[in-house]
Amino acid sequence: MQKTLSFVAILVSLLALAFVWFRPPVETPRSGEKTQAGHAVTAATAASGSPNAALLAELELAHERIRSLESRINGLEAEQEVLAATFGQGAVTDAAPTTELGGTLAGPVDGAKVVRGLVDLEQKTELLEQDLEELGVFEHFAKKAEKLQQDYDRVFDETRSTKERLKSAMDLKKADRIDADVATALIGIWDESRGDDYATYFLLDSLEGVVDEGLRDRIFDYLPDAESPKMRLRAVSTLEPMLDDPEVSRWFGHLAENDPDENVRVSVARRLERVGQSPAK
In this model, does residue 206 exceed pLDDT 50? Predict the structure, then answer.
């Protein structure tokens, strides 16, 4: 693809050069006539001593447009590679050359058609960006990013209430923005909120997916005192991503055999089966 585009750029350059050298001479206005074209040619001649300066400037602008379009095409090619790999269709480079871009196996290159295609692509891109802007899509995502940053900062703000910080943590969890620093801050909130089932539940929910020995040990300490089956199941869900840890696996086996609530026992046993372990292990 990149070789084809480079060839296209060279072809367009040659076409433009041909246009420069074989273009009919500019007519000189009759005496006393001050046309706009005449002014432009006169200005170019005064600046460089040759009327070809204006044409060379046009050629340079054309080159810039081609380079810009080539960059966009390369970006689209990268996205296409990802999509092809995702859907198991093989690399894009393995596909037959397209006649639209005049591939090496598709016959002679139609330079004019390639240029029209590139210009059409640029126009469609600009129209799409304009539509997205008019629909407020860009503004929506900008506001969303701003709110997520506020939520991120609020989690670390110890002047805020625990409820506010937990609400921000839940919003970050929905956006998949719980990183190591946020997890550390939430574990600190856990230590400050012992005995508060509301805080414990939402902390367990926000921290699901975090693999951390400190979190694991805190849940181990919490489980024997958790009277609510709902809270024990919530703790089990947070521990599940750590099932490769033998200590976690042993806890699951204990709960599957000995938890007083049947729903908890069945749920834990099913989780063990999903990873190929038996409750008795």
Answer: yes
